[in-house]
Every structure is written in C-alpha cells, then in structure tokens.
Design a protein that fits this description.
The structure is a single chain. The protein has about 400 residues and is of the alpha+beta class. Helix content is about 30%, strand content about 15%. The chain contains eleven helices and 13 strands. The strands form three sheets. Strands 1, 2, 3, 4, 5 and 6 form a six-stranded mixed sheet that branches.
Length: about 400
Amino acid sequence: MKERMRLILDYDQEHYSMTDLCSMYGISRKTGYKWLDRFARKGPKGLEDESRAPHHHPLKVSEEIEQEIVAARGQWPKWGAKKLRDWLMGKHPDRPWPATSTFGSILKRYGLTIAKAKRRRVPPYTKPFVDCGGPNALWCADYKGWFRTGDGRRCEPLTISDAYSRYLIRCQAVPRTGFDFAWPIFQAAFIEYGLPLAIRTDNGPPFASKAVAGLSRLSVLWTKLGIIHERIDPGKPQQNSRHERVHRTIKWEAASPPEETVPKQQEAFDVYQHVYNHERPHEALAGQSPATHYGLSPRSYPLRIPEVEYEEGITVRKVRSNGEIKWRGDKIFLSEVLIGEPVGLEQIDDRYWLIRFGPIELAQLDDHDLRLIHPKRKSRALNEKSPKNPKCVTHVPGMKCHPCTG
C-alpha cells in the first residue's frame, strides 16, 4: 500500500514520466496505469488487493433449485443427499439438478445436516486368529441385541458358544451390558466347563475399551487366566459368523414373540438351549447335535486367579492407583484398567523398551523422551501371512491351535 501511494504522489508531482516511474518501482506500464485508474475511481481503498474470484458463476445453482432442495429435505428429514436427488429427479427429470455433492453442500449451508463427531476407536487387535480345531479351543461371546419383554423391561441376552462344536454354553438375559453383569456369567461358565484357549468377541463393552491395547476389566481377568482375547475387526461380524448364526436361531425360536416377563423369557432361553445342544440337528455337524461333539476343557478354573508372571530379564513395574508406572524417577500414565497389575518392560535397544501385560504388547516406551508409542493399525491379513507366528500363550497338549512353536 505504501509503495502504491508513493507512486501516486510521484506521478501527481510530475517530476518523472510514467515510463521512468514504472522502471523505478519495478512494475510494467500497464500495472502503473491500473493503480492510477483505481485511485481515481475509489481513492486510497482502490489500492487494496481485490478478490480474484470471478464475478459470475455460469454453473451456480439457482435460488429456485436451492429452495426446492431445502423443501424436499423438510418433507423427508431423514433422507440423505443422494436419496433426495434421486427423488427430485424422478419427479422433475427435466430440471437441471446438481450433483449429489452439491446437494450435500446446500443442506450443510442451510444447517440441515449434523456432522458426526469423530469418536476415538478401540485400539485394533491384529494377531492371527486361533484355529478352532477342537472343543474349547475357541469360545465366541456377544450380546444378541436388546429387546423388551411384554411388561416393558429391557432384556439383553449374553451368549457364549464353542466355535468347534457350536455348543451353546450360555444364553443369559441381563438388564444391560457391563462388567458387573458379564463377569459372573463367564465365571460360572468357566467353573462348569473349564477354561478355553481363546475367546472371540467384538470391540464393544465390556469386552474391550479405549484403553491401551483395547484392554478392559474383563479381558484383564481373561489374560490372567491364560485365555487369549481375540477381537474381530470393526464392522466385520462375519469374522464371528458361527456365533452370529446362533443369534438368528435364538430370535426365531426363543424370542419371537418375547415373553411377558424377563424370568419367563429366561425360562424360554433355558428350554431353547437344551434343545439346541441336545436335540436340534446341526447342518455343519452332519446332522448331529452340538452335544455329540463337545467335551469339558482339560483346563479347570483355578480356586484363585493367578497373577501374571514374567520371565527372567524382564523389568517389572506395578501400575499405581492412578494408572501410572514409575520409571527413572518419573511417572508415566499407562491405563487405569491395569491398576494394581504388574507390567513387564523388555529392552529393545538403547532407547526403546517394550511394555507388556503378560503376552499382550501394550506400547513402546521412549526412554529418552519418556513417552509411549502405541502400535499402528496393521492389516490382519498381512499378519496371518507372516512366517513369524507367535507362541501360544497357554498351549494345551493334544489341542489343535494356530501354528505355534510351543
């Protein structure tokens, strides 16, 4: 602005020609005359930079089209941009309707869409899945999905099944999800049938959390019992398809329609569970019942849940009441889920340490900056092709599992 004003003042004093002025200020004669013209028309404000946006937009959506899109959204408030566009094109195919993305931009500009808040996802589980080659090699667990009984009470069945034999271990109605309701059911199943090698679930509570490595209070107890906790990929229920098929049968045969009360609904579940395990032929089992292929686990539930132990050479730290561990005189936050539990630190090199809870790798510790480096998301398919398969955590002699060296 100052240089342009000096150019105007020097020109008014008529000490220099226009050619000399433009040479002095390092601009072309065309640019010099442009500033003179702007100053003559608008004064000092004419010397400010102007927007380079075009004055006319030949492809701009007309106000009439915009209002029709807004009106359609008011008529169908739950429809998205694509569905609204298809509907309007069906009603008025001769109108110049814009692209779907433009529909979305118009709805957003009028405040008719709400952006979904980004949620912090549970850390991924990328280890290879256990091969369910025998009974109790793999249990599957999930919630069927809540519904209301005839009296209006909420009923949300927690189901557990053996992946190999399809034996339905538990079908228990609970008022809601949560550790306090889930753990007693799993504990009773462990006492009755023994411990499995692995349990496969989704990433929802109480099975997983947003804590380090996706650990939850429930999965911490499973790890202490020597059970591998497998988690399917988000949005991939087919990775637990055997158990999902059980839910479909439960809905048909035991919950359509729901019973009048939760106790009566549980009675219906108990009857269904007996029929499913001992009477109902299963196509995947050559027409035999699940009970003919299932047997108790050789690993019995202990009288006291053992503590996690580490091999020699591992530095052990106990997680404090605030979820922190003490390292080199400093405190590093790890997870409140592990309060009171020992974690092991294994030195990788002069700078980095691997933090583990039993066999589960939690994060790497940067010893120089005293910060945690969490593992990045990787494809499970790549891991399954890797020749370096980890050892089984609790290898049971005679039980087929994922290829291991144990």
